Each structure stands twice: as structure tokens, then as C-alpha cells.
Amino acid sequence: MSANASRRPTPPTGMAAVRAAAASCSAGALRGKRLLGLLALIGLPIVVQLVLLVWGQGRGSAFAAFAAHLDHSYLRAIIPLVLIFLGTAAFGDEWEGGTANYMVGAPIARGLIVAGHYLAAVRRALVLVLPALLLLYVLCLLPHEGAIAFYLADGLVVLAVVALTILAYTAVFLYLGLWLRRSIISSFIYVLVFEGLIGNLPSGFASMSISFHARNLLWRATDEAAFRPELLQQLGLEPPGATVSLVTLIVFVALFLFLSARVLARKEFTGSGQQAESAPGT
After folding, report:
1. How many domains does the chain have?
2. CA distance 173 to 180
3. What's the rounded Cα separation, in Å, for the pair 146 and 251?
4. Is residue 219 assigned to a domain?
5. What is the mean pLDDT of each run of 10 residues along the chain (282 residues)?
6. Crossing angle for the helix pair 242-265 and 210-222, to the nearest 10 degrees
7. I want to staple 98 with a disulfide (CB 3.0 to 4.6 A). Which of 60, 271, 273, 276 is the partner?
8. ∠ CA(108), CA(251), CA(18), 5° rounding?
């Protein structure tokens, strides 16, 4: 056999390696009971709005109703819950399936593996959430002639902010899925404490909440009262500026992706797929 025939292919690098890691990521795939459960969760506000259209003669429609659905249902509960399953599964399914040792044994830098799995989870979340929001937008504004076109710019802002929110939540839950064995339970605690409790406290505490900054961005961009933090309004406090919230969400993404890469770089795997922390300095 010639030297050329026995030479191994050159490992991918850069974006090619990220795409390869994303393409090989079967964890968190949208299929079976997981897909049905997530679709049912995401579709609940749509069902409510359909009921209002058919039996409530359009009561509770227009952009304010869309904003209320987005604020109370999607930003506070549905999007975090969806990302708990998709984000933690981006690596958690590899541990459960015993394929983690094959994944990290690939000739790709572990930071690029994290980036690939992250993008795969983000893509699945966007495919689930954004079409549902578009449909909800149409259903809420349909009873009002010309409203869909009139609020189109605000609707596009909503989609952009939701996409950024998904990026931030995915980074957090991907990190928890790598760092902790009971990652789903820990993620639920994170949502309850940071998004349910701290996110509704005065701004100094709320700065640790992703949903708070998402709602603040939407309020600053659309001037829709449904997005303004209620407690701050009652206390007469002014929320931070749009730039602060935008930078904070970007920092969430960068920080937790960095931490995820550090955690994966320190893990070692046995042939059976079991994980263990590597020794310091290895």
C-alpha cells in the first residue's frame, strides 16, 4: 500500500469543523415524543388565540394582545422550557447514549465541537419557536384591517429579540448539560430562581435574568407597555437602556460558550462512554 493511500484525511478546521460537529449532532433531535411535547407546549398560546377569534369574536386581539402572549407565555415560560430540553440534550444525550467518547475522539478541537452542538440546538429552537410566533402575530392582528402591515416593523423586532434570547438560553443550558449530571433539574431551578423570581426584582437583581433583558429590549424598541417590567414601574425605577440589555445578552452567550468549552476540554471518557474530570493540568 502506498504512503498516499494510507494517509488519513486532513481534519476539518474553523467553520468547516463547526459545521461537521453540528451535522453529526443527533442529540436533541426533533422527533418522537420529544417533538410532540414541544409542539404542544409552543402551540398553547396559538390555541388560546384561535378560541378568542372563533368564539370571542376577536376579543383580546391587536398588537397589545400579541405582546401580552409573548411576554407572559413565551418569554417567561415556554421559550426557557423548550431550551431546557434542547440545550441540555445537546451534550446530555451523548452521555446517556454512550457516544461521548467517539464524539470527543474526533480530530476536532473541543471548542469547535461545543460551537457545532450549540448551533445545532439553536437551529432546532428557531425552527420551533419563530414560525409559531409568526402565526400568533397573524392571528392577533388579523381582525384589524391593515394592522399586520402597520405593525410589521415591530413584529420583525420581536423576532430578532426572540432569536437573541434563544441564543442566550441555549448557551446557558448547554453549559448546564455539560457541567452537571442532573442538568434538567438544575435547569428548572435556574428558570424558577433567575427567570421567575430574580427577573421580577428591581433592576440590580434583574440584570441576572435573560428574560428581563429581552423584555426590556422589546419595550425600548416597540414602546409597548406589556413589555415594561411591572415591579420597576410600581417602584418608579427606570429600567436600563437598550444598549445595556443588548450587551448583557451577548455577554451571556459568549460567557457560557466559553465555560462550556472549558468544561468539555477538562473531561475524559472511558471506552464505555463514562465521563470523568481530567486531572489538573492535563
Report:
1. 1
2. 10
3. 38
4. yes
5. 52 64 60 81 87 71 88 88 84 58 61 86 93 94 89 95 95 86 70 63 67 90 83 64 92 94 74 44 35
6. 150
7. 273
8. 20
